Structures are given as C-alpha cells and as structure tokens.
Automatic annotation (TrEMBL):
Protein name: Peptide ABC transporter substrate-binding protein
InterPro entries referenced in this protein's UniProt entry, alphabetically: Peptide/Ni-bd, SBP_5, SBP_5_CS, SBP_5_dom
Origin organism lineage: Bacteria, Bacillati, Bacillota, Bacilli, Bacillales
Tagged with keyword Glycoprotein: no
Keywords: Signal, Transport
Signal peptide: 1-23
Membrane topology according to the record: Lipid-anchor
SUPFAM superfamilies with a match to the protein in the record: Periplasmic binding protein-like II
Subcellular location(s) of the protein: Cell membrane
Domain of life where this protein originates: Bacteria
Residue ranges of domain Solute-binding protein family in the record: 80-468
Organism: Bacillus carboniphilus
Major location category of this protein: membrane
C-alpha cells in the first residue's frame, strides 16, 4: 500500500477490537454527548506529496484521500468492503466482468453528479504511460483487461477494460478471475476524478485545496500545496453526510514524538500520533494509551545495482547481523515485533486449512552474528576487498533517526571492516531516490493494499514498479506469474506458490533484510469515539468519528 514511513491496523492488542473501531461505536449521527464542538485535532508525520489520486504512492497521501474521496466501495467499521459510490454490483458467472450501478445521490462537492465516466477517465489516466503513475500500472496490470498493454504503450488508454454504459452504469472487464477484486475497489488508485473539472484546471489541478473537488465525507481546506497544516471540513454534498458527525478536522504535521506529546498534553491534539519508545514507557499505563500490531513489514532494501549487493554472502550477512528482537523490544517499544519474514503474521490464512501464512513458512534470515561475520568475511574475499563503506538512506523523523543509529551500531559491531554512513531525508525525497535507485541500503516498508499475500509478493518481480533495487529471480517471477494467472481459480495451490516465492526471496536469495512487523502506540482522548483503523489500504477513516464530552 503503500510505501511506508510507510503507513495500518489489524490486530489491536490494547483497547482496540479486531473490527478496528476505537472509542465505542459513535458515528451514526445524534446521540448523547454530541453537543460538544465536533472538531477533531490530529497530526500527520509528513507533508502531502500529492492530491492527484492517480499519482499517490504513500501512506500520508492515501490516508488523506480516504477522507475526501470515495470509490465504488469503502471499507466499513468491520473492515469489510461495502457499497459506496456504487449502490450495487453483480458479476458474470466466471467473475471476469463486473457491472456496478452508481447511486443517484453521489455528488462532487461542486454539486456535479458522480458519473460512471468519472471512473473511466481516472482509470485510463492512471495507466496512461504519459501520466507517469506508479500505482496505476502496479494496481491494474494483470487485473483490468488490457491494462498492461496500455501502460506499456502498446494500446491506447481507450482500450482499457472499463466503460460507462450510461451515467449510472460502469462495466469493468478483468484479465482473469481476481480473488481480491472487490477489496481493490476500496483503494485510492481506483477513485473517480471529475473529468470536466480536471480538464478545466489543467496543470493547476490538485496543486492546492481550491483546485480540487471532493466526493467523500470531507473536503480538503486551507492546503496551499506545500504547507504543514490543513483542514478537513464536512462535505455537505456527500451522499452519506448524515453519518458524518465531525464538522472539521484540523491537521498539523509533527515529525517528532516530543512535539506530538506536548501538543496532546496541552489540548492541541486529540490523537497524539505515533509515540517513540520513551513515551511508550511513560504512557503505557495511561487509560488513553492504545497499542496494536499492524500487517506492515519494515526491511532493508539492498540495491543490487551496487556491486557489494550483487554478492549473496554480503546480503545474507547484513540480514543476519541485526538483532531484530532488540530493535523491536528495546528501541521501538511500540508493539512491534522482530520479523524474519516478508509476509506478516495474522494477515492471511490458507484457504483450506486456515493455517496462518507464517505458520507453514516460519522464520528465515534469523539473527546470527557468528554466521553473519563468517558470511561477511567470505563476501569481502569474493569482492577482493577488506572493508566497505555503505550508506543507509532513512527518514527524518525522530523514530527513524534512532532506528538508523541502532542499525549502524549493529552492522558495524557484527561485521568487521564495515563503515556505515547515514543519510536522513524527508519522505518525499526518499521516494524520489528510491525510484532512481539512488541509494546503497534503504530502510523501507510496506503496508498491504488489499487482503491477499500478493500485495507483498509481487513487490519483487523483475522490473516491477516497486522493486527498485534490481532484484531478479526467474523462478520467483514464474511463481508469481502462476499465482496471478494459471492458479487464480485454485486458491490453495495459489497460496502455496506464494509461500514458496517467499522462501526463494529470503532463504535462497537473501534479497532483502527483514527488520520488524510494525506496531503502533498512541494516545487517544477518551471523548474521541468511532475512530476506525484498517488492515489494508488507507490507515484510518474519520467518517464515523464523533466528539462526546
């Protein structure tokens, strides 16, 4: 889902139920305690990179778009896809064609009807190679009919398998049966865009809040395109506005825990945002403390365009030289757990046996400093050098900086002859450097875009839009291709093929160095009701939040 600082929730371990709804039900309009001002004050970890839904590729952007736009489907309070702009849909017998009927009362914030053509326009734009979207091809290729040929410039966008039969009827043709297709329809890449408005604004579209129209629960306000503050205001044209209690959400970017806690204690934030380890220790007994495990994995990307990482022993040594449990338990202290895997635990299970993905595949690339040292010395000998200097590209938040220092210490301590330098940059800069493979080692992560292991597995196919580290293995590619095609109607064999692909990625190739499965700890005022967290796609929904003092 998202590239992470990158950015979700599934197993809520303290005060939050698995349904993902925090602070009680709330959010149905009316009710006791609703006389309080319906204004929520929150924080984000970074500035908004883009508000063009076809260009978004990060947690911050996706999370914001989930508040102000809406697709055919939306994740509800129980994290199940439910009709949104579409009031109904039906599929043909082999589930390769879906017909969506749009609701009459779906409107844009300027009063225009949301039409089927708005989806056609946005989806074509997302896969048009002239647009330059990363997520359009990533989400649609191999799913929507002809998306691959369109994104590669071999067919015009008009050949994409989506058409408007009339204003209310959208027909989507798939390349094949896609088990997770309906959950995809909740994701921001598949949101509509008001074609007439986009064309009217031209190159000014989405550059600030005035150059956008919205069809979600809220409208974006007071965003100048680069600022560190903005607002969400209730969208009176939204078809389900009666379910929306909040009149306004005030957002401030804060990149360090101290500032977030200070603002929270001063009453300037109702939700603290993520806490660093020091504050987790301080507040873990607070009744407003919330901690949960997300299906989000962080790892080190090892750029195999760089000569050292073309050596398997070097890659494997780095992967086994880091004490991941110490990272999670002693440094992060936020509910994270050390990860020796690429597909998270408690996320997906075998369609026949019900066994969690992790139970069968177990741990790989576990911490082993002695073996790491031996592999490192072998790798240096094979490279014909006695020492290496490598740079870690990381984030500029306080949590990221502390983790980078930990990684530097671990690697230099356990791998003699290694010098680590640290480059800490804003998230938008890291995205740019990732795309251009301008790094040695990168701290990166991924949260799921849909509830299927493929959202992690297809990251590493040769030439994939999110690979960006020059990894390539033909057997891995074959397994992913089979899972996407020949095995699409055989759920058990498909699941097992993806498990085998993970073993190739880690056990055989040590292509990445897994670090941890992310937990989040934060403080939420007890009067905030109805906050919903999601296990895939955007992190939060504020649609049902209310203030009940």
């Amino acid at each position: 889902m998202k590239k992470m600082n990158s950015f979700l929730a599934i197993l809520l371990t303290i005060s939050v139920l698995l349904s993902g709804c925090y602070g009680g039900e709330g959010g149905e309009g009316g009710g006791e305690g609703k006389d309080a001002a319906q204004v929520l004050k929150i924080t984000e970890t970074a500035e908004i990179p883009t508000m063009d839904s076809v260009m978004a590729e990060d947690e911050v952007g996706f999370n914001i778009m989930n508040q102000v736009f809406e697709g055919l489907m939306r994740l509800n309070k129980e994290n199940e896809p439910e009709p949104a702009v579409a009031e109904d849909y039906e599929a043909n017998e082999d589930e390769t064609e879906y017909t969506f009927t749009l609701r009459e009362d779906a409107k844009w914030s300027n009063g225009d009807q949301v039409k089927a053509q708005d989806f056609v326009f946005a989806w074509r734009k997302a896969v048009d190679p002239q647009t330059g979207s990363q997520y359009g091809p990533y989400m649609m290729n191999g799913v929507i009919k002809n998306a691959t040929q369109v994104s590669e410039g071999n067919l015009p966008p008009e050949e994409l398998g989506v058409r408007a039969e009339d204003d209310k009827t959208l027909i989507v043709t798939l390349e094949k049966q896609v088990p997770y297709f309906i959950s995809l329809m909740t994701f921001p890449t598949f949101y509509p865009q008001n074609e007439a408005f986009v064309k009217e604004k031209g190159d000014q579209y989405a550059l600030n809040s005035d150059n956008l129209v919205y069809n979600g629960p809220f409208s974006l306000a007071k965003w100048n395109g680069t600022g560190q503050t903005w607002q969400f205001v209730k969208n009176e044209e939204y078809w389900d506005k009666d379910a929306v209690n909040l009149e306004r959400i005030e957002v401030t970017v804060t990149k360090d825990s101290q500032s977030r806690v200070n603002y929270y204690e001063a009453g300037d934030l109702d939700i603290s945002g993520e806490l660093s380890s020091d504050y987790v220790t301080k507040y873990k007994e607070d009744p407003n403390f919330v901690s949960y495990l997300e299906p989000t994995i962080f790892w080190l990307k090892l750029n195999q365009e760089r000569e050292p990482f073309q050596n398997e022993n070097i890659r494997r040594a780095i992967a086994q030289a880091i004490d991941k449990d110490a990272l999670a338990n002693d440094l992060l202290k936020n509910g994270s757990i050390g990860a020796n895997y690429a597909v998270p635990k408690d996320f997906v299970s075998h369609p026949d046996s019900g066994e969690d993905f992790r139970e069968a595949n177990g741990d790989m690339l576990e911490y082993n400093p002695e073996e790491a040292k031996s592999l490192w010395e072998t790798g240096l000998s094979e490279l014909g050098v006695s020492e290496l200097t490598l740079d870690i590209l990381g984030g500029d938040t306080d949590n990221a900086k502390r983790m980078d220092e930990f990684l530097k210490n671990q690697l230099e301590k356990n791998l003699p002859g290694l010098t680590i330098t640290l480059t800490e940059v804003p998230f938008s800069v890291r995205l740019q450097r990732d795309s251009s493979l301008d790094y040695d080692i990168q701290v990166a992560g991924w949260g799921p875009d849909y509830q299927d292991p493929m959202t992690f597995s297809d990251l590493w196919v040769t030439g994939g839009g999110n690979n960006n580290m020059a990894y390539s293995n033909s057997e891995y590619d074959r397994l992913i291709s089979e899972a996407q095609n020949e095995l699409s109607d055989n759920p058990a064999e498909r699941f097992e093929a993806l498990q085998e692909a993970e073993r190739i990625l880690l056990e055989e190739d040590a292509a990445i160095a897994p670090l941890y499965q992310e937990g989040k700890s934060l403080l939420v005022k007890d009067y905030v009701k109805g906050l919903v967290t999601h296990p895939f796609g955007p992190s939060y929904s504020y649609k049902w939040v209310s203030i009940e003092k």
